[in-house]
Amino acid sequence: MTVKQLYLWEQDRYLSFAKQIFDEKTIIHDIYPLFIHNPNPYKVSCYYLEKDGTIIASLLVTMSRQNVYGHYYDVPQIHFAGTLKEYRNHGYMDYLLNECMKRFRKDSLFLCYLVGLPHFHRQFSFSYGVPSYQDESFSLDRNTLFSYPADQTVSLLSSFSDTVLTQMISLYEKDSFYNFGSERRTIESLRNKLTDESIVNNTCIYIACEKETSNLSGYVLIEKDKNQLLVKECITQSKVTCYALLHNIGLLLTKDSLDNAVFYSPQNSYVATLLREHTDMRLEHTFTSNCALYRILNIESAISIIMPTLYLRLHHSNFAKHNGCYNLHIDEECITIEVKNGVIGLSFKQGEDVFLTKEAFVEIFTGISSFASFSDSIPNLRTETKELFTVLFPVGYPYRFPLDCM
User: Fold this and answer.
1) Is 231 contained in some domain?
2) What is the pLDDT of residues 87-146, one digit of tens each?
3) Distance from CA of residue 290 to its chain's centroid?
4) pLDDT tens digits for 46-90?
5) Which of these three, 286, 307, 327, is where a domain ends?
6) 63-83 b/e with 16+ CB inside 10 Å = b?
7) Helices marked H in 107-161 — which ranges?
8) Could you give the number of structural domains in the chain?
9) Residue range of the domain that includes 56
């Protein structure tokens, strides 16, 4: 069976297929903007399998620039993978995904991802990568928000100058949790997002600036949805700024006679700390539903890309002068890492065997888990080797501020 790519003029054919799988709300609010009415239709690809002229399995692919250890790379994202009910459990989707992975590898891509359920998508070799918060929300009531001190001036952002947008992007990159896997923001893309007609009438942004320099020290993006305020982003550099922004949200609730503000995605350590104080939010709570699941397409490329980070971790540890050679077995693949006088790199030498599953490797690559989390299941692992790899792969990514350390 051959994987085919849908042409733009065949979108009606895809819709006929999608309506048999996805509900009307998903089609209207998600599939239409992504694939049917996308202003850049050539940035979305649709791959499918057909039988007797009928699409039986399909998925959409978009490309984003994602932050991987401080550098941005093209990473394909899988959307709306689905199979007609009568053709499920016959391996069609597994075949379609694997054929797409071959195309990605041919294009020298080393990583791909989707947002989904870990226990379901594990069968397609996708593993836990980065928690996704869009399905998680935490409410704070008006009185709590209003009680925070307003020791900094907060104002409504009315114009989107290059200077302000640049500072917003800088804040997001430096002070949000999303340093692994976060998409690259540009002045143009952010301005387009904030001035989109579909959101401009019910979205507002409040900013706080430093008195001495007038530089942006925090912002909050709020969406008014029916009878509630949705806090989509709240990024701050300090507790003082955080308090001032939250106090302002309390004022907005009072003005509109609303009781609660719903916080999506606690992206900042100060905001997350307050949510933990006043809600039942816990670190494990963010791992229970949809999350970003990754599949590493090329182990050697993935290790090569993060080699500068591994060197720095090694350099600032007790292994700065270490020597050793290690065969890292990840399921059926094997690469050799050599450490020589504190310098780390790939090698063709034979060394000590270290065994990991692909699922475990994804988790330590993104930093959801440390190497030590899996060390007990690795046969014949020496204590020194365990300590070395724990230095190389600690817990910490994707978070700049791990929630359980605050």
Assistant:
1) yes
2) 999 999 999 999 999 999 999 999 998 887 777 777 788 887 665 544 566 788 889 999
3) 11
4) 999 999 999 999 999 999 888 788 788 899 999 999 999 999 999
5) 286
6) bbebbbbeeebebbbbbbbbb
7) 118-121, 142-146
8) 3
9) 4-131
